[in-house]
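Sample pair:
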Amino acid sequence: MWQSENMSEETVTEFTFFVDAEQFGLGGYESAALAADESDLHEAGVYNVDIPRGFGNDLGDRIPVRVTGTARGLKFYARLLSLKDPIQLEELERVRAAALTREDR
């Protein structure tokens, strides 16, 4: 788990990405997530990434990766993961839209 000490004043929200366990286990998604260092993540608006460790078959074929950040940060992280699942993309846009609406108030 990585967490930034300094959160911005922008509205912060959470989203759980479900990534393919096989790719994750081979280092695919975890490596992609590490393509950005902590300062890149913080600058993009990502403040916390929680990737479960020591998972077994109990999580099935998808690994939950919980990300806390701004709407911009969540979109940045989705690009790092090369997210293509249409259902997850739709849900991500709903969460981002809600966060952006809260920022406007």
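The chain has a mean pLDDT of 78.
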